[in-house]
Amino acid sequence: MLRDWPVFAEGFGMTILLSALALLLALALGVFFGVLGAAEGKKVRLCSRIYVEFIQNTPLVIQIFFLFNGLPHLGIMLPVFTVGVLGVGVYHGAYVAEAIRAGIQAVPRGQLESATSQGMSYWSAMQHVVLPQAKRIALPTLTNQAVSLIKNTSVLAMVAGGDLMYHADSWSSNNLYYGPAYVVTGLLYLSLCMPLARYARRLERKLEVSL
Fold first, then answer.
1. Cα–Cα distance between 133 and 52 in angstroms, integer?
2. N or C: which end of the chain has fewer CB within 10 A?
3. Cα-trace Rg, the chain
4. d(Cα 92, Cα 88) in Å, to the nearest integer?
5. What are the CA-CA distances from residue 37 to residues 6, 41, 79, 97, 150 (Å)?
6. Nearest to residue 33, comparing CAs of 57, 56, 49?
7. What number of other Cβ atoms are within 10 A of residue 125's Cβ?
């Protein structure tokens, strides 16, 4: 295994890049649909609910298979890396949206009303007054979502995604040395997820103290 460490290093680097881009997409979708979910209009709230309910109630594997195997039937061919970023990002965007919505609803309604009474538009008040407070409340949940997102990138191995799990599977199949390969792979995932999980717990403790 030591001789073939570049195989695992390549997969590890791909997993980090995939996780970073998918997390950016999840945050963008989450903020957008989270704000819609907390809005007053029924139609915009419905748009957010449809996205959240559909994504949360269908398995990530099915969504990845649809992007990889289903879209070509519609004439859309995506590189497997793009499939990974889209699939994992859109999936976790639904969970981030719920965290953002809950954070916004935890901010006293008077904050938004005071901002709008000072002449700020709804979106401006949301951006400068409500979202900074909601972000602080939702941050521990968002950090836990980042941990889940990193682990869920492993589903890309099912469509030859080039991630860490795919490289571990491929190397094990060629060398018939499964156990140690999966132990090393698990440790590499652990090195990414454990610091984030500890950071989330520290944030939760700080939030409890500040409340």
1. 23
2. C
3. 20
4. 6
5. 45, 9, 32, 8, 26
6. 49
7. 20
Reply yes or no on whether the pLDDT at 210 is more than 60. Answer: no
User: Token pair 């590189």 is at which residue?
Assistant: 79
Find tokens 């080039």 and name the residue: 162
Q: Is the pLDDT of residue 4 over 60?
A: yes
In whole angstroms, give the CA distance from residue 84 to residue 19: 9
Burial of 121 (0-12, 13-18, 19+ CB in 10 A): exposed
What share of the chain has pLDDT > 90, as a percent? 43
d(CA 13, CA 23) in angstroms, rounded, equals: 15
- DSSP code string of 119-145: T--HHHHIIIIIHHHHHHHHHHHHHHH
Whether residue 35 has pLDDT greater than 70: yes
Cβ within 8 Å of residue 150, ≥6 positions away: 15, 19, 189, 192, 193, 196
Question: Residue 17 is encoded by which pair of tokens?
Answer: 């890049």
- What's the confidence (pLDDT) of residue 111? 81
What predicted TM-score, i.e. pTM, was given to this entire model? 0.86
CA 2 from chain center: how many Å? Answer: 32
Residue type at 186? G
Per-residue model confidence as pLDDT tens digits over 132-190: 888 878 888 888 899 999 999 988 888 777 788 888 888 888 887 788 889 999 999 99
Coil, strand or helix at 104: helix
38, 66 contact by CB (below 8 A)? no
pLDDT score, position 21: 96
